[in-house]
Amino acid sequence: MTVGNRMIAGLGLGVAMTMGAIAVPAVAQDETIKVGVLHSLSGTMAISETTLKDTMLFLIDEQNKKGGLLGKQLEAVVVDPASDWPLFAEKARELIEVNGVAAVFGCWTSSSRKSVLPVFEELNSILFYPVQYEGEESQRNVFYTGAAPNQQAIPAVDYLMENEGVERWVLAGTDYVYPQTTNKILEQYLLDHGVAAEDIMINYTPFGHSDWQTIVSDIKTFGSTGKKTAVVSTINGDANVPFYKELANQGVMAEDIPVVAFSVGEEELAGFDTTPLVGHLAAWNYFQSVDTPENEAFISAWQTFMGNPDKVTNDPMEATVIGFNLWVQAVEKAGTTDTDAVLDAIIGLETPNLTGGIAKMLPNHHLTKPVLIGEIQADGQFEVVSESELVPGDAWSDFLPESKMIEADWTAPISCGNYNTETKTCGGSEVAAVQ
Amino acid sequence: MTGAGMTILKHLIGAMLLLSALLTAIPAHAQFADADLTTLVDALAPGSFKDRETAIGNLVASGDPRAVPVLETLLEGELYFDETGGKVVFTSASGGKGAISDPVTGADLSDLTEADLEKVKVNNSLRRVLRTAIGQMTLLSEDARVRLSAAQSVLRDADPAQLELLDSAISAETDVRIKRVMEQARAVIMLKSPEASVEDKTAAVPVVLAIGGRDALNTLTTALASAPDEIRPTIESAIDGLARDRAAWDVAQNVWFGVSLGSVLLLAAIGLAITFGVMGVINMAHGEMVMLGAYTTFVVQEIIRQNAPGLFDWSLAIALPAAFLFTGLVGVAIERGIIRFLYGRPLETLLATWGLSLIIQQAVQRIFTANIREVGNPSWMSGSFELGGLAITWNRFYIVIFALLVFVALLLVLKYTAIGLHMRAVTQNRRMASSMGIRTPLVDAMTFGLGSGIAGLAGVALSQIGNVSPNLGQGYIIDSFMVVVFGGVGNLWGTLVGALTLGIANKFIEPYAGAVLGKIIILVLIILFIQRRPRGLFALKGRSIEA
After folding, report:
1. Does a cis peptide bond (omega within 30 degrees of 0) precede residue A413?
2. Which A residues, 206 through 225, put their C-beta within 8 Å of a C-beta on chain B?
3. Spatial distance between the Cα atoms of B463 and B85, rounded to a whole number of angstroms
4. Which residue in B157, B430, B406 sits closest to B293, CA to CA?
5. Beta strand residue intervals within B252-337, DSSP E
6. Which residue among B124, B466, B468 sits closest to A279, beta carbon to beta carbon?
7. With an 8 Å Cβ cutoff, are A279 and B127 in contact?
């Protein structure tokens, strides 16, 4: 197909399409394999998600340099759901129905993921979701390449209990589904470990909260009873900068009240001077500072691709890389991009983590990951202070009474995302909810 | 406490005994042989954090003053070691001049390169151990400032094992201020220590009480748990007194938080009070003017960082006029290019400016990427100070002052300058003003430019407390309209009172209802209020409101 031809075709389609699509879609279906990229490029989440769009373009570019997939070139179809949760569902439908993509890599917030789930189920396509999340979910068409709570939140709390002797806990989060569910799991976990109910303070703030004076002052008061106190932060996105600035200005030092964050990575820290924050913690499965040959090669290739030697890498990027590599392997193994064949082929496949160890796709559509705890350094990077063995992701938390008997297993004979091991039936969560 | 923790405690006690034994002697006696000290220093590098803790204990036990800079460098996380040889070294970053040097002898080790080196890792618990260790080793330093910080560190830890050392330090101390800190530390230790006698504990209570604030409350509450029955009433009454004080100060603190939030609202809304309040233009792109002001600050700081780093503390002073001019010009352009065609058509204005706000956001995102940009705080805007029982952060403090200054300046401009007179004339009766020879289109452009320019000033201030990202403006636009409508459209004083009322109300509701519910309650209250008084707090009376 000539360039001119392609442009005319693109123009024709472009009129029919909403303005979000950036890549010009080709008409001929058999020349390339199309990969959908569903990340917000505008609105509040653009801060975090734009990087993942670039990561996908980078990975596809690398794969094409290696000769593509099944002898065809890969082609990215990028759409912009604009941080608008219902728009995610519309854009997902557009990617699958109009563009005919083989798989979609996308979403960041749990709200956006929940919004697209029915679309992927109905149209039987594949979504790779690269962000740590609250668990309590396993869907046939979705692969969760970020951390489940047992791969991030629980080990972080364990670290604070064991190494810092923390006895009093502030669970601070943004008011939406991920922090709410994570805090519910953590609260139950802490109560189970003998923490008194009055030693747990739970606090929620709206998205983009900017005035942290009262909350930081409350944390200081809560932490001045003589018991060692820590803050577990599920504060999301751009609310973190004012939160940390207020902490620093009010003199909350990591040595007195450490803050361990689940949504603060290298990308977020690039937004401010971290000198006063040295020692505050984050729990992830990947840090840019981890010294492995794989990571070094990845960082330098990424920085070259972006043309910026200061460009940072972070955990959701690694999750995207792993998800992409596993998908490529699964397609090669299945010899087709057909959804059902890929879904079967991908279970049990392995690819190296960038931080060492092997990521294996489990039957519950989660991965094995090492858990790293890092302390913020003055240069905006993290220093790893604790590294675990590989932990298999658990879709349904074992610490909540309503989900501990539920397992996800997408291999025969169970083939179910919420199998109740007590009643031996699929649809466990509904059963539990009724009880 | 963990097993390793006990070991380190034993080491520390050992160190203390050794130190106190050596104190009477001349410090030079504490000098170790170079080789022995080097072995101790090198032991910092290998193994886990627990091993490092033991190594620090041994180094403290040496009592050698040359260990102090090593520990200080380690505390700053700037101590390195040779990956192959395992030797601990200072680098240029650790204060040594230019090259890599031996921490004990100071000898030049330039056969090593930066590439061979790896950082000796520290974590929070190690930092605490280090602070304690440095505190002990410098408690008898000759430099009064070092002694003071050592005393403060001993006060922070209040480790009963340090009592003996502390006692000898107190008897040797001549500086009244340092002595007071040391005595406070001693009192805290007395309350903590299970061995201290009842008399010692009773005597310690008033000393701890004098420290005041949360720290004292904290210490006393902890002490109460393990106190013998005789002194319980003393401690309890001290706690009651402190808690009463605290409650009073908490109210004051809430008022301050409210004023501070109010000043942020005022800054964000005051430009809108001109464009919406005075001109009647529903300007949905107002938040984007604030955002452009913040980005101007970023650009100014970047230029300063690259060309004249020494001027950094002046960056805000330079950014203020730059932001005012830039956003003012953008405002004039918007008025001339779009809004003047839409006067009297509020719905179209709303839609046009809304679209414009999206265009500006995307344009900024294209130029600066979607990432949060770092706008530094000049040194004089970092940290906090204590005023009685109030902890006031400097950045918030300056923003309150700045907001009030902008408000007063704007009031003066409107009242006492020719352009201000023209603005008021045009907004009150356009046709009459026009027939008096005022060029109303020019005045319109100027008024809109002024409103936008002030929004730009707000952006400079807000860059100091929040994010600088393309979405910065969106967070403030609703609040701004709320303040202007609540205060009374067209009345600057209304905007001031409205902003402060909303700020303080918000901060008093927040501790009880939480931030999310607090916001909802405020919104509901405003809706109810507007039902009762549709024109806001300070309604304009007379003919002007119909214009």
Report:
1. yes
2. 206, 208-211, 213-215, 217-218, 220-221, 224-225
3. 47
4. B406
5. none
6. B124
7. yes
Q: Is the ipTM of this complex over 0.85?
A: no
Mean pLDDT, all residues of chain A: 87
Residue-level pLDDT at B403:
95
Q: Do B264 and A211 touch (CB under 8 A)?
A: yes
Asked if the Cβ–Cβ distance from A251 to B391 is below 8 Å, we say: yes
| Pure H helices in B110-175 | 124-138, 144-157, 163-172
pTM of the model: 0.81
- Any idea which residue has 């918030």 for tokens? B396
A220 neighbourhood in chain B, CB within 8 Å: 214
CA distance A81 to A91: 6
Q: Chain A closest CA to B209's CA: distance in Å?
A: 15
- With an 8 Å Cβ cutoff, is A306 touching chain B? no
Looking at residue B8, its pLDDT comes to: 54
A214 vs B507: CB contact, 8 Å cut-off?
A: yes
d(CA B90, CA B77): 11
pLDDT grade for B400, boundaries at 50, 70 and 90: very high
Domain B250-546: give its CATH code.
Answer: 1.10.3470
How close B433 gets to chain A, by Cα (Å)?
Answer: 43
A205 touches chain B (CB under 8 A): yes
Contact B43, B187 (CB under 8 A): no
- Could you give all domains of chain A from N- to C-terminal order, each with its CATH number? 3-147+293-370 (3.40.50.2300), 150-287+372-392 (3.40.50.2300), 405-435 (no CATH)
User: What token pair was written down for B310?
Assistant: 């020494």
By Cβ distance, the residue of A46, A163, A224 closest to B218 is: A224
Distances (CA, A) of B385 to A214, B389, B394, B397, B465: 17, 10, 7, 10, 17
Distance between CA B297 and CA B409 in Å, rounded?
A: 21
Residue boundaries of the structural domains of chain B: 3-217, 250-546
Nearest CA in chain B to A380: B374
B152: its two tokens: 């403060």
d(CA A181, CA A179): 6
The answer to whether the Cβ–Cβ distance between A378 and B77 falls below 8 Å is yes
CB contact under 8 A, B128 and A255: yes
Task: Decide if pLDDT at A5 tops 80.
Answer: no
Q: In 10 A of CB A5, how many CB atoms?
A: 12
Q: How close A385 comes to chain B (CA, Å)?
A: 7
Tell me which residue of B261, B317, B281 sits closest to B510, measured CA to CA: B261
Partner residues linked to A350 by β-bridges = A360
> Number of CB pairs < 8 Å for A and B?
150
State both tokens at B71.
């520990």
Find out whether B373 and B298 touch, Cβ atoms under 8 Å: yes
In whole angstroms, what is the distance from residue A23 CA to residue A14 CA? 10
A301 in B contact zone (CB under 8 Å): no
Q: Tokens for B180?
A: 């007071």
Whether B224 has a pLDDT exceeding 50, the answer reads yes
pLDDT at B411: 92
Strands A127-129 and A168-174: unpaired
Look at residues B84, B110, B82 and name the one whose alpha carbon lies nearest to residue B96.
B110
